[in-house]
Write a structure and sequence with these properties.
This protein is mainly α. The protein is 77% helix and 0% strand. The N and C termini lie far apart (104 Å). The N terminus and C terminus are likely disordered.
Length: 222
């Protein structure tokens, strides 16, 4: 009888506990299932968007290379920006079109595209690459100070050499040899190991600078 009483009592307590916690438990399990399903859906969506973005970018590249009507190519770029903003393709397409504009000497259009990438690309390397190119375009337009301002902000060490080399080019063209030498020296010192130091050493020499006898990449002085 005592065993029967204990079993009944345990059953009653279980029922009471279930009344108090069963709904929360079911909802918790349901939430977990929904979360997993939601994650799987999101992953599939990201993968699908990346694939679709790559396809759209490929079509854009072919249009650009074929010399199709410029309006059509620009329209394709706008579509990539609107529909695939979470991918690298809007920035890459904008960089490609900017390069095309530079080749065509349409520098205003190139500068505008590069400014967009520098402000909106979803990856820092793309933003920094665009900023360096934008500085060169501004320099080509005779806007030296605007170009130097773009280059004056701090950048990750991997981009120090690139930015200081561009700064040196601008300063040298303006006849400011002291500033050019200083920029080239920093660029040479920051050059990644194994990179070709010869062009920078030549620029530093042309600005009247003293080229180190033992470059940071261990190349011998010729």
């Amino acid at each position: 009888m005592a065993d029967s009483f204990n079993e009944d009592d345990d059953l009653r307590r279980l029922k009471d506990w279930w009344k108090q916690n069963g709904t929360a438990l079911v909802l918790g399990v349901g939430a977990g299932v929904v979360a997993i399903a939601g994650w799987q859906w999101w992953q599939a969506r990201v993968e699908n968007q990346a694939y679709s973005g790559a396809t759209a970018y490929q079509a854009f590249s072919e249009s650009l290379e074929s010399g199709a009507a410029q309006a059509d190519t620009v329209e394709m770029l706008e579509t990539i920006r609107d529909e695939f903003g979470a991918t690298p393709y809007p920035a890459r397409a904008s960089l490609d079109l900017a390069n095309h504009y530079v080749e065509q000497r349409q520098l205003d259009k190139a500068a505008s595209l590069l400014a967009w990438v520098a402000a909106n690309a979803n990856a820092e390397p793309l933003r920094l690459l665009a900023r360096g190119r934008q500085a060169r375009v501004l320099w080509a337009q005779g806007e030296d100070e605007a170009a130097l301002k773009l280059l004056s902000t701090d950048v990750p060490p991997a981009y120090t050499s690139l930015f200081r080399e561009i700064e040196g080019d601008i300063q040298l063209s303006a006849g400011r040899l002291d500033q050019a030498r200083q920029a080239y020296a920093v660029a040479l010192d920051a050059l990644p190991e194994g990179a070709d130091a010869a062009p920078l050493r030549t620029k530093l020499e042309s600005a009247g600078g003293r080229v180190p006898s033992a470059p940071n990449n261990n190349q011998e002085v010729s």
